[in-house]
Specification:
The complex is a heterodimer of chains A (357) and B (229).
Chain A (H helix, E strand, L loop, with lengths): L2 H14 L3 E2 L5 E3 H8 L2 H5 L2 E4 L3 E5 L4 H11 L4 E10 L11 E10 L4 H16 L5 E6 H9 L5 H9 L4 H11 L7 H8 L16 H16 L5 H12 L1 E3 H14 L4 H16 L8 E3 L13 E6 L10 E5 L1 H7 L7 E6 L1 H10 L1
Chain B lengths: L2 E6 L2 H13 L3 E5 L6 E5 L4 E6 L4 H7 L4 E5 H7 L7 E6 L5 E8 L8 H15 L3 E5 L2 H11 L4 E5 L15 E6 L3 H5 L2 E12 L1 E6 L6 H14 L1
The chains are: A alpha+beta (357), B alpha/beta (229).
Chain lengths: 357, 229
């Protein structure tokens, strides 16, 4: 079987399981993608332009166009599958392909997120079964619930949540909010100044004096807020360092929830998902779970996350990956939103591994 | 075949490069009329001087069309992906010093560190509905630096000249540019972030890792490098 035939086989597999086949343009509006992913996408996607439409990108993935299409005129609930090339600029490793295929499956469904998570995972597992891959799973929802449950200011929680996908900045913020690092001298001087704008010189640019003053006020509020306690910071570390089989993790999380009740509903959701996965024949006792899995991927996953890896081929990226992205649908839905979960498989990798086995 | 040495074709960078080689017993000089890009090398055998724009030297090195080249270390890092797999630094030459930095308006009294910039970016995006704009021509270096530092909610705006003026003209909120004395920044009411130094650049002699070498070339290259050490 060729990689293309593998792609068609996977598409047919998802279609046979009730998904509607959809397509997406290769040229996507750069504006939407840039607004969503930020400047980093420029390093990963091919940007081109024409005089009328402005900047366009060769689609780096299908998620955005599929979500947009669903938000515009999709029926509910909906299951979609798609297949085609995606394009990624390679800046560091010449051996990585700049053009490769993806086959995806996405579920937009409100009623039972645990069942939808389990459905997607079980279908991917079935589609990849002959390859003997290792599944990695995680749940961004638990970490996010833990941050929301910290006994600190809303502003600090928002700052931590914003950087949940950037582990280094997240750690720096947590240390600062925990009083672990010295406040920079410039900050102390600013907070002590009676008229902070005295030496500002001319006010220029789009960021107004009101915005500058608002931030100074926010910094003053923050300076008198109590530090995040060592105990709470340690709880976050406990969650991030979890790396065991799923049932053990669940047990640990129930213990942690005694000290941080805010995560109870996220832990219950995980429990419900494991039950639903079990009902679909997944061996959850043997399922790996990592508390920090999903933190360094794209920043739209906000719940269940998973990936399938060829353990004998550590040089290869994930053969398949996916997760839940409820918040993304509201960003792209202009006020409307719907819970969504899905993922992609890379047919070339399936093909390469299939030849080996 | 000869060893091809690429050197900036004009200005102080060319003069200082000629001086630097001259002090090490390698005479570089332009020949012909003032407008003609012809040159000669004295004091070593088998070396040919190629006069190029400093901005093109990284590309020529990476393509293997020149064996050695003198250019700013900032330009090599900006223009070549995975630069250290394609060229190597032979000598830091001690002139052409310039720092690639991030600067914000003086009036941003609340912003002194990258941490501040990141927080201000988040608030700016919420208020204005778009990401804070940083004007630069060093896209790769700035993007890699900000990603590494975990700064979010910004966008880069291309600016090939007069970058310091973009804030006043409201086409950008901050700039990332090369500065040596900081005078242009001060004149435009901009200040450096205290931890916003992206790269300390200077004129550097680079060697291509891809250029083909005959046996005679190898001899000529090692004779030249011996003189330069």
């Amino acid at each position: 079987m060729t990689p293309k035939a593998e792609m068609r086989r996977l598409l047919a597999f998802f279609e046979a399981n009730g998904a509607q086949v959809v397509e997406a343009d290769i040229l996507q509006s750069a504006e939407v993608l840039l607004d969503l992913y930020g400047e980093d996408i420029r390093a990963r996607a091919y940007v081109t332009s024409d005089a009328l439409r402005g900047e366009q990108m060769l689609r780096p993935d299908f998620t955005v166009p599929v979500v947009q299409m669903h938000m515009e005129h999709g029926a509910e609930p909906a299951r979609y599958t798609y297949a085609g090339e995606v394009f990624r600029r390679q800046e560091e490793d010449i051996n990585r392909p700049s053009e490769f295929m993806q086959v995806g499956y996405e579920v937009f469904e409100r009623e039972n997120p645990a069942a939808a998570d389990a459905e997607v995972f079980a279908l991917f597992k079935e589609a990849l079964a002959p390859l003997g891959l290792r599944a990695a799973t995680g749940d961004m929802g638990i970490l996010m619930a833990a941050v929301r449950g910290l006994s600190t200011t809303e502003r600090r929680k928002a700052a931590l949540l914003r950087h949940i996908w950037r582990p280094r900045r997240f750690r720096a913020l947590l240390d600062r909010f925990g009083g672990k690092v010295e406040v920079p001298a410039s900050r102390l001087a600013l907070l002590a100044a009676t008229d902070a704008m005295a030496l500002a010189g001319p006010v220029m640019g789009l960021r107004s004096e009101a915005e500058i003053n608002a931030r100074i006020e926010a910094l003053k509020d923050d300076a008198v807020a109590a530090p995040i306690s060592d105990g709470e910071a340690a709880i976050l570390d406990d969650i991030l360092n979890l790396r065991e089989k799923a049932p053990m993790v669940l047990e640990r999380l129930r213990d942690i929830a005694v000290d941080l009740p805010a995560i109870i509903s996220a832990v219950e959701a995980m429990d419900a998902r494991l039950t639903a996965m079990s009902a679909r024949g997944v061996d959850v006792d043997g399922l790996d779970f990592e508390g920090s899995y999903g933190r360094t991927t794209l920043e739209y996953y906000d719940g269940f996350v998973f990936g399938f890896y060829a353990e004998a081929r550590p040089d290869l990226p994930a053969v398949a990956s996916g997760g839940r992205y409820d918040a993304l649908t509201s960003v792209l839905g202009q006020g409307r939103s719907i819970p969504a979960v899905g993922g992609v498989i890379r047919p070339e990798l399936v093909h390469a591994l299939g030849d080996q086995s | 075949m000869t060893i091809k040495l690429g050197v900036p074709s004009k200005g102080r960078l060319m003069e200082k490069t000629f001086d630097w080689f001259g002090k090490r017993g390698v005479g570089l000089r332009r020949t012909g009329s003032e407008r003609e890009y012809a040159a000669a090398v004295d004091g070593v055998e088998g070396v040919e001087l190629v006069l190029l724009s400093a901005g093109e030297i990284p590309r020529e090195l990476a393509a293997g069309r020149i064996h050695l080249g003198v250019t700013g270390s900032d330009l090599v890092r900006e223009k070549l992906a995975a630069w250290d797999s394609r060229v190597e630094e032979v000598q830091l030459m001690g002139f052409g010093h310039a720092d690639l930095i991030i600067a914000v308006p003086n009036c941003w009294v609340d912003v002194d560190t990258l941490d501040d910039l990141d927080a201000a970016s988040a608030a700016f995006r919420k208020t204005h509905g778009f990401r804070m704009r940083i004007a630069t021509k060093y896209h790769r270096l700035v993007r890699d630096f900000l990603r590494d530092q975990g700064v979010a909610d910004y966008q880069l705006i291309d600016s090939q000249g007069a970058t310091e003026g973009t804030v006043k003209n409201e086409t950008a909120e901050a700039v990332a540019d090369i500065t040596s004395s900081g005078e242009t920044l001060r004149a435009n009411h901009l200040k450096l972030l205290s931890d916003g130094l992206i790269h300390k650049s200077q004129a550097t002699l680079f060697r291509s890792k891809t250029a083909a070498l005959s046996d005679a070339d190898r001899t000529a290259l090692s004779a030249l490098l011996d003189k330069l050490n």
